[in-house]
Design brief:
elongated; 68% helix; mainly alpha; single chain
Length: 224
């Protein structure tokens, strides 16, 4: 009787394959976009005059779409995982943010390790991982771009920091990687420019601080 009641309660939250429903309306929108990528090769429902359109929004006209990387990530993740199992597209969309936030935490740990060592990096990464706002937006079953945004934010900062310590060709390689990640970031979040302003501003402040603390050596070099 307990099992029967448990199954009845779960049935309200599961589809006919006993998979839990996604957690928000946006999640189903990204599910549809992902299915469109797999079916059409792009995330729009149709193409009008060379423009992708979402025919389910702003009825009856539809909404023109810009490029969005997240549905393509989900689609290729599904193709990869389907090699090893009979996983559905909906399940892939449900777990994609969990995978992305795991990668984000790895990058964050490596970035912090350069400054504060193993214990500090572990503590900082843990505090970030359990932050209520982040956990609420990256749980399994919630498909959105939050984890993708965090991943590319830390990748951009990480490559930028590596460029500071590098010399010669390595410096240019890291700067190019940071710039490339920034270019991809523009297709993930409309606030991508905040990261650019942060890095450019910190670079300017860092330059002035170096000039201030080494002003004596700089003045003597100029005199020579």
């Amino acid at each position: 009787q307990v099992e029967k009641e448990r199954g009845k309660l779960r049935g309200y939250f599961q589809n006919d394959k006993n998979e839990m429903y996604l957690l928000s309306i946006d999640s189903y929108q990204y599910l549809r976009y992902t299915e469109n990528v797999l079916k059409n090769g792009h995330h729009g429902d149709e193409i009008r005059d060379g423009q992708w359109f979402d025919t389910h929004m702003r009825a009856p006209l539809g909404k023109p779409l810009n490029f969005s990387l997240y549905p393509y990530f989900n689609a290729y993740l599904y193709k990869f995982l389907s090699i090893f199992s009979d996983i559905t597209v909906e399940r892939v969309v449900a777990i994609s943010q969990v995978i992305l936030i795991a990668l984000t935490l790895m990058v964050m740990y490596i970035l912090l390790y350069r400054f504060v060592g193993n214990v500090g990096a572990l503590a900082g990464t843990l505090l970030f991982a359990i932050h209520p706002a982040l956990m609420d937006r990256t749980v399994g079953g919630l498909a959105d771009t939050d984890a993708f945004i965090m991943l590319f934010f830390f990748l951009i900062v990480w490559f930028f920091v590596l460029a500071f310590d590098a010399t010669g060709k390595k410096k240019w390689v890291y700067l190019i990687l940071s710039g490339t990640a920034t270019g991809i970031f523009t297709h993930l979040w409309t606030g991508w420019w905040l990261t650019t302003y942060l890095l450019v501003g910190s670079g300017i402040v860092y330059t002035f601080l170096i000039m201030f603390f080494k002003r004596t050596a700089i003045i003597e070099t100029i005199k020579q």
